[in-house]
């Protein structure tokens, strides 16, 4: 039942043009636009080496947070979650199915983004296992707060808030704009954001060949625990 529901969730995302734009097309466009041109000053080093990890982090946020928050919020509004909760699939199974669907969509995103980045001359380094740990921890962090938003706000408010957070974190989370460009006081605060921690952690591994980066992992773990605990406490199915 869980796998069947997960398959339905994946197909629903891939058939939704707006979701597909958010989760796949926008990250790829940003990667190509800023990777193949000099519109932005990305600091020393090769542009694609800086951009590819950041765009991977953006893809995780777009699926686990923005897309999941909006989709779940409208499912809650129209009573879909209430009806699913009354089926033989338990509520824990529904959460597991949504989690599997998010991971499956992220796998597609990662494959496409990595293929485009490699075509642009990207040469990643580091341990793939460390990358997977960072991506999974980032997924947990974003999913918790996405579900928290979807389970506590009205669907329209979730739509507006999720898109606003997406834009703000895209601009100030170290995805395509280096955090070094911000004032030192602001930079320290921005480094504590989950998107910044994920992007910088991925760069530490893929660009510098580092092992598991301690500070980004700690930041992501704190966000993951906080988000999942709050979502479990305050999420309302109706």
Index terms:
77% helix, 238 residues, 10 helices, mainly alpha
Question: What's this model, at a glance?
Answer:
By secondary structure, the chain is an all-alpha fold. Helices cover 77% and strands 0% of the residues. The protein has helices at residues 2-15, 17-36, 47-77, 80-85, 91-119, 128-152, 155-172, 184-190, 194-206, 214-234.
| Quaternary status | single chain
**Mean of residue pLDDT?**
87
Proportion of residues in extended strands: under 5%
Q: How many E strands? A: 0
Q: How many angstroms does the end-to-end distance come to?
A: 22 Å
Which runs of at least 5 residues are low in confidence (pLDDT < 50)? Answer: none
The Rg value, from CA coordinates, equals: 18 Å
SSE pattern: HHHHHHHHHH
Can you count the helices? 10
Helix content: over 70%
Protein name: Transport permease protein
Domain ABC transmembrane type-2: 18-238
Family: Belongs to the ABC-2 integral membrane protein family.
Organism: Actinomadura soli
How would you describe this structure to a colleague?
- Residues 18-238 form the ABC transmembrane type-2 domain.
- One of its GO terms (biological process) is response to antibiotic.
- The protein is built from ten helices and no strands.
- The mean pLDDT is 87.
- The protein has helices at residues 2-15, 17-36, 47-77, 80-85, 91-119, 128-152, 155-172, 184-190, 194-206, 214-234.
């Amino acid at each position: 039942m869980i796998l069947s529901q997960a398959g339905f969730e994946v197909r629903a995302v891939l058939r939704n043009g707006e979701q597909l734009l958010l989760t796949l097309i926008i990250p790829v466009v940003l990667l190509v636009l800023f990777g193949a041109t000099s519109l932005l000053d990305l600091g020393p080093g090769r542009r694609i080496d800086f951009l590819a990890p950041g765009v991977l982090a953006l893809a995780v946020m777009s699926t686990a947070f923005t897309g999941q928050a909006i989709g779940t919020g409208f499912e809650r509004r129209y009573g879909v979650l209430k009806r699913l909760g009354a089926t033989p699939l338990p509520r824990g199974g529904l959460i597991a199915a949504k989690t599997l669907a998010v991971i499956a969509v992220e796998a597609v995103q990662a494959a496409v983004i990595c293929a485009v980045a490699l075509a642009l001359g990207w040469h990643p380094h580091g341990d793939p296992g460390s990358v997977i740990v960072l991506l999974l921890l980032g997924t947990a962090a974003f999913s918790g707060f996405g579900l928290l938003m979807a389970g506590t706000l009205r669907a329209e408010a979730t739509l507006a808030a999720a898109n606003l957070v997406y834009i703000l974190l895209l601009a100030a989370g170290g995805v395509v704009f280096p955090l070094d460009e911000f004032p030192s006081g602001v930079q320290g605060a921005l480094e504590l954001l989950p998107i910044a921690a994920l992007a910088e952690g991925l760069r530490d591994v893929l660009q510098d060949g580092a092992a598991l980066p301690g500070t980004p992992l700690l930041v992501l773990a704190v966000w993951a625990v906080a988000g999942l605990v709050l979502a479990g406490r305050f999420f309302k199915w109706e």
